């Protein structure tokens, strides 16, 4: 008996569990996300080495934000670079990714500035601040690259298309009057 399908079928190249580039994440943004994860992890670990604090509220805010950035960015990276994102039930991944990254960039910037202004000047604190600012830069670069490659077109969910400066005509909804 001969195999009917073997000469004409090929394996599905998209069947792997890890796929970059994809519709939601290209190689450049994947690299940004990996750097965000690594830099926020290093900032968090360095902050954990601080034994005494001058202003503990600044330290705790930086700790919370660097840990949150590490965990949630890692989760987002895993979801966007694997088929898991299709099982979550979220259809607006570009919008979620953009808003999360922009908010995290702003909050990380604030936390890094506050911790830089109110620390004891130890090597661990200064190094943690430096990695906090590096992570902040990666978040802002990711936002900038996202806007450069996709603009804000992903934000217009269901907005009517324009035609020659006006709104495009929708399909006729009313039925023709039929004499009874």
Automatic annotation (TrEMBL):
Keywords: Membrane, Transmembrane, Transmembrane helix. It comes from the Eukaryota. Pfam families: MARVEL. One of its GO terms (cellular component) is membrane. It is a multi-pass membrane protein. It is found in: Membrane. This is CKLF-like MARVEL transmembrane domain containing protein 6. It comes from Dissostichus eleginoides (Patagonian toothfish). The lineage of its organism: Eukaryota, Metazoa, Chordata, Craniata, Vertebrata.
